[in-house]
Each structure stands twice: as structure tokens, then as C-alpha cells.
Amino acid sequence: MSAPTFRGYLIKAVKTDAILPLKFIQWDSYKITPNQREEIKAYRDDNTRNLTRVTASGKKTAIEFKLRAMWLEDMMEFQGWLGDGIEDTQEAHEQRKIQLEIYDTEENVYKTGYFYVPNMDYTILRITDDSIKYKEQTIKFIEY
After folding, report:
1. What distances in angstroms separate CA 99 from CA 86, 90, 113, one per listed residue?
2. How far apart are CA 75 and CA 83, in angstroms?
3. CB atoms < 10 A from the CB of 71, how many?
4. The pLDDT value given to residue 40
5. Any residues with CB less than 8 A from the CB of 101 and at least 6 apart, and which?
6. Are 31 and 10 in contact (CB under 8 A)?
7. How many CB atoms lie within 10 A of CB 75?
8. Do the Cβ atoms of 62 and 33 come closer than 8 Å?
9. Where are the beta strands (DSSP E) in the chain?
10. CA–CA distance from 78 to each of 46, 107, 109, 133 (Å)?
11. pLDDT tens-digit profile of 94-124?
């Protein structure tokens, strides 16, 4: 078995070559499902009940984690990282389409792919005269 290729980060925006700062991630929430298999068709034989599966050759990855609770300044830094990494077309901005280099924990290698970010919720924990503190929130990256 070869040595792992881990280089100290989990996610990097390809367009900007910017690593997602690890300080944003609530560690007990980080979940990656690499190389998801998708069934084109699956059925059981009527007599033997043996399962037949036709699986797509393409495999996609999904990543989910919680941003830790943070103040406005950190939230804006995260939003800047995400926004700057979005592809440069109107359609990409509408879809939040971003090319990421991610660490695949199943194969222990870095891979590149296009992902989208579903809608995000912002729950406010506290407001001061000059800032807002946000509750942790779930972020998802789903591969195209």
C-alpha cells in the first residue's frame, strides 16, 4: 500500500486555488460519501430471487459538514471563499457551481470535480451594536 497523499486540507476551490480554512468546520459533523454508486436498474429474478444490478460507471461524491458558530467577520470570510470560487457564468452563479479539489477518504487521494451548494440557512444567535453571531449551519457540496 502506498503512502497517503494528504496535504493538510480537505477542500480547495480550484478557480482561486484557495483552501477552505479548517477553522470553519465543526469536526464532529464532517461527513464525506465518496464514489457513490447509482443504480440504473436493479431487479430480482422471479424464481431464484437473485439480485441483478446495473450500476452506472460514473461515481459521484457528496460532502456535508457544519460551519461552526461564528461572528459576522468569519461568516463573510467563508462567504467570500465560496463566492470567489463559483464559476464565472450567470448559470453557475444561479446554481452555485464550484469546481473543488477534495480529499477522497475512500481512496486516500485528492480528486477534482464540479459541485453545487444547496440553499443555506442563517440562524442568528446574537446581535451586538456592530456584529452578528450565527448559529452553526450545515453546508453541502453535491457533485454534478
Report:
1. 7, 15, 6
2. 12
3. 14
4. 80
5. 11, 12, 14, 110, 111, 112
6. no
7. 19
8. yes
9. 11-13, 18-19, 25-36, 39-44, 51-55, 60-67, 70-71, 97-104, 109-116, 124-127, 132-134, 137-143
10. 53, 28, 25, 14
11. 899 999 999 999 999 999 999 999 999 999 9
For the record, the C-alpha cell of 16 comes out as: 482561486
Are the C-beta atoms of 114 and 42 separated by less than 8 Å? no
Q: What is the pLDDT of residue 32?
A: 97
Question: Checking DSSP bridges between strand 60-67 and strand 25-36, what pairing results, if any?
Answer: antiparallel
Dihedral of alpha carbons 22, 24, 30, 36, sign: negative
Burial 115-131 (b: 16+ CB within 10 A, else e): bbbeeeeeeeeeeeeee
End-to-end CA distance of the chain: 30
Q: What is the per-residue pLDDT for 2?
A: 62
**C-beta separation of 10 from 108 below 8 A:** no
* Spatial contact of 24 and 18, defined as CB atoms under 8 Å apart: no
User: Could you give the angle at the alpha carbon of 138 between the alpha carbons of 136 and 139, nearest 5°?
Assistant: 125
Helices (H), the chain: 72-85, 90-95
User: 18: which 3 cell numbers?
Assistant: 484557495
